[in-house]
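Entry for flavin-adenine dinucleotide complex. Fields follow.
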Amino acid sequence: MDSGTAVADRAVAFPGSVREALDAMTACPQATLVAGGTEVMTLVNSGALRPSCLVVLDRIEELRGVWFGDQEIVLGSATTCADLMQSDVRGVLPALAQAARSIASPGVRSRATLGGNLLSGKRPGGPAAAAPTRDLLTVLVALNAVAVCRSEQGWRQLPVAELYARDGGVNLRPGELLTALRVPTCGGRQGFMKVGTRAGAARSLVTFALAADLSARTVTCAIGGFSPLAVRVDHAGQWLAEHVDWENGAIPDPTTYPRFARLIAEGLVVPGSAGPAGRTTVAVPQSYREQAAEVCARRALVRALPPAGWLEQVAQYQQRAEFVRNRARVERAERGLPPEPPVPGQMPGAQPPGGGLSRGAGA
Ligand SMILES: Cc1cc2nc3c(=O)[nH]c(=O)nc-3n(C[C@H](O)[C@H](O)[C@H](O)COP(=O)(O)OP(=O)(O)OC[C@H]3O[C@@H](n4cnc5c(N)ncnc54)[C@H](O)[C@@H]3O)c2cc1C
């Protein structure tokens, strides 16, 4: 471990492993952990939080990365939002990648971590937290993720939703570190949507995540964003499961989309206050929030399970576009016009001269 330095009368430790982090936390039980620092350091720099010591986690390689197993995917707690957007994660956990992409700006996403997002608003020994923002939580609740914690007493694993008290405070024990999230592999389709208080980077008004498991033929979904917690909406998931064409992974009846969305919005009960660990966006009228929930649910469902025949239609459009492109090339050649446009180099995506002309031309 870099034994640490004193910055402005504050001890700062830079452990290089989980073991060293636990030692540093034992040495300073009131330590504030810093992962990406996008929340903590904003508070420290503004003077709203005055920790006596900081334990910085960003040099611990063990905490960062994604492990793909047959039964589960393990996400290190210090994995950044930018990492979660990479194609390997996007391929298996598309809703999580979509949620990570919705957070803040590219600069913040390159620092902000999964663990920091889930535990935003945690204030060991500090003042009551400002409103936590936990957009990734909605996805992990929908996916039945399990939080893995480590302390001097050993490992503790619990469903991610149980990390929180009813008022939105964090239930980590003293000296406990969140090391990873275990997400069961769900062979299927997922969708995430978020509506904020304004366009651009903004506090969420509603977040919604949905996962359809094509082999188990189940749908799980969760809603959050309006409070520090995210909740499962199991009755809507069960209703939807009866309206899916599981063979084709599609929705046969288009009225299923608005009916499902209405079911989500009708069940939305927003607490007037989320308690001391966070405040909700209470100024927003309930009718508007319900409308936002409806929009999120409908769009997330379209993302996850398209209308029956939609994929075939997309394939037809693509074929038609290829045909039009090829016909234009043939016509230029027949009229003796130059095949290349007046730009330097080759056009991105253009086929080499002569290539592909015959494929769609006669279609
Ligand atoms: C401009 C801006 C825009 C933002 N937009 C969004 C948004 O759209 N959506 C959203 O959800 N959030 C948003 N945030 C909030 C925040 O930055 C994110 O939630 C981020 O993911 C926090 O991660 P971090 O690694 O920076 O956390 P940190 O600031 O390092 O830590 C946050 C809290 O988690 C604790 N912690 C971190 N890691 C661990 C661990 N392994 N074990 C135990 N405790 C731990 C820390 O002690 C601290 O209390 C935004 C922030 C900014 C500055």
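NOTE: The chain has three domains: 1-62, 64-304, 320-361.
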